[in-house]
Amino acid sequence: MELWYIQDYINEYKMGLKVKETIFQGKTRFQEITILDTYLYGRVLLLDGIAQLSEKDEFMYHEMLVHVPMFSHPNPEKVLIIGGGDGGASREVLKHPVKEVTLVDIDEGVIEVCQRYFSQLGRWDDPRLTVLIEDACQYISSTSEVFDVIIMDSTDPLPHGVAEPLFSPEFFEQAFHHLSPQGIMVSQMEPPFFDVDRVKKLWEGFNVFPIVKLYWGLVPTYPGGIWSYVIASKSQDPRRQERVPDFPTRYYSPAIHQAAFVLPSFLEEMLENQKRDEENFS
Ligand code: SAM
After folding, report:
1. Ligand 1 pocket: which residues have CB below 6 Å?
2. What superfamily does domain 3-54 belong to in CATH?
3. Model pTM greater than 0.90?
4. How far apart are CA 130 and CA 172, in angstroms?
5. Could you report the average pLDDT of every consecutive run of 10 residues in the chain (282 residues)?
């Protein structure tokens, strides 16, 4: 009997992966955690039934989520990762000569399971990494820390889900006040072609920042195979690289950094703010 994982995160769209076996299934206080072994993508992490990453292409997502903001900043020393419990984002950040990385994830169950089943992900024993098990909404409203880069690597903003409050203008405004003058924030931004209204709403939530841009990259595991990211900064032009990699990367490159900001005109039109920013740099 064939076993399939069918993802129907987008109501009218389904994506399927043929499954060898279910490796882990469990429930924490916050979400259901499943790990599948699939023929095409290797191990896949599901949270509440939604694919978060696969062994095969997680590098594409984590390299683009992390290295575009990190190389746009002249000297990122203190970095905050919101979510990121699988360890992929922190693994990439720690490749940079940062001083401190704070990872705030609400669910230690995700961290524990990913440490057990995804050995290529985290660098959990790096002394520069501090892991806090906390709701990032609480954290951002109570911390006095100021960061150079904030990376939002949370689950999708499902209605009434734990991640939903993270995608609010209030949260982005609080994050803004916890960024240094050259501070940069990036967030995974949902599939740009399925849920244009949601992307637009999230985009507008970043209005507190003077500079907001959208970039995109391939992630075959995610709906439609393309993923978008929103990057917002206080003063830096995120298209300009301040430094280049001195470590190997498999997706990110200086050329990809530039190309990722080139959007199809229908997306540009959707984000009329994009033109507003051009004025900021003219
Ligand atoms: N890369 C994946 C993606 O783009 O969908 C997500 C990576 S990671 C698995 C997402 C993490 O966000 C989970 O570990 C989850 O526990 C965490 N998370 C969700 N809501 C949160 C909140 N309010 N505060 C802190 N972490 C949260």
Report:
1. 47, 52-53, 61, 82-86, 104-107, 110, 135-137, 153-156, 162-163, 166, 188
2. Spermidine synthase, tetramerisation domain (2.30.140.10)
3. yes
4. 22
5. 86 90 97 97 96 96 98 97 98 98 98 96 95 97 98 88 89 96 92 76 87 94 90 95 95 97 86 53 48
